[in-house]
C-alpha cells in the first residue's frame, strides 16, 4: 500500500516546525544569530537577511565575519533607526520605501531587494530590542506574513533564553545617557587636591662634608658606611710615600741652609763679603723652613680625621680605595643620625604649583605600607639633570616626626592646591597637546 504524497501546505508546515527546532537547538548567541539569517532561506526565498540588535547589525546572510563599516550594514542601521523614530517597529509588517528618507531610499535601490519585511524581536515587557530585515524581489503574501509573525515569537524567546539581559543601549535610553553625561560633567568640576609622585631619598641635615684635602691616591678607608665615629677618629689615609720623601728632603734642605747661615755669621766679623750674604742666607732659611712646614702639613693631611661626632655617610669603601682624587672632591659626610631631611627630584613634566609648607608623604621602598609625613622647605627654581638623564627640580622637605634612616629611598607624594577634577585628570594630556600643536 503506497503512502499518501504530502501536499504543499504539509511541506511548508514541516519546514516551519524544523526551523523552530533548529532555532531552539542553538547553544550560543553566535549560533542563534547565524541560524536566524540563514536557516529560513529555503522556506521564504529571501535574497538576504540582516539581524539588528539594539540598533546594530549583528549578522547578515552568507557572511561569517561581519564588517561594521560595510555600506549594506550602515544602510540597514540607518533604515531601522528611522523606523524606530516613526514608531513602526512594534509589529511585523512590510516596509514601504515611502516611509524612509530620500538618501535611505537611494541606498535601498542599490544595496537591498525591492520587497522588505520587518520582523521585530520583542522582550517579555513588550519592548522591541531588535529585529530582522528580510529582503527579496517578490511580494510577501499574507500566509508568509503570518508564518513570519509566529516565527518572530520563537526567535524572541530563543534570543532571550541565551541573552536574558537587555543590551546596554536599551537599558540606558537617551534620557538616562544625557543624565549620566550631566552627572559626569558636574563631577569634573568638583575641586580636588592636586598631587604628584616623585622619587625621594632621606639625606643628612646639616652634615659635615669630608672632602679630599690634597691631590693623591687613597690608600685605605678605615670606616664602613653608616659607622659611628667620634671627633678625631681616623677616617681614611692617603698614599704618603711621596709626601714623606718631600718632607724629608725639605727638612734636609732647611738644615743645609741653616748651617750655611751659621757659617757666614761667624765669618762676618772678619770678612766683609760674608757679612753681605747674611741677609740673603737668612731669607733662604725662611724659604726652606716654609717648604718644610708645607711638606709636613701635606703629610699631616694624608690622614683624614673626623671633625664631629656622627655616622659616616657614603656608598662603598672599595669604590674609593686605590682611586686618585683631586683636592676638594667629596668623599663622605659626617652626619647626626637623628637629623635628616627628604630630598626629592620632581620631574619637569610632573611639576605642579607648590608653596613652602606643602604636605609631603614619603613611602619607603623598604616599607611601602607606612607613611612618613614631611613639610616642603625649599624648591629649586632651575631644573638640573639627574643621574637618570632627565631634568628635575630639587625639593627639600623637613620631617614632622622622627626621620627614617639616612640613605633610604622611596616615593614622595606632594600635595598642591585644589583644582577642578577635569584639570587634575587632563593636565598632562593638555600639556602634551600644547607641545604638539603649539597652542
TrEMBL record:
Provide the Gene Ontology terms for cellular component: cell envelope
* Cited Gene3D superfamilies: 2.40.50.100
Give the range the annotation lists for the signal sequence: none
Q: Where does it primarily localize?
A: other
Keywords in alphabetical order, please: Coiled coil
Localization: Cell envelope
Q: Does the keyword Membrane apply?
A: no
Q: Which SUPFAM superfamilies match?
A: HlyD-like secretion proteins
Q: Where in this chain does the entry annotate a coiled-coil region?
A: none
**UniProt superkingdom:** Bacteria
Keyword Plastid in annotation = no
Q: What is this protein called?
A: Membrane-fusion protein
Q: Which organism is it from?
A: Pseudomonas chlororaphis
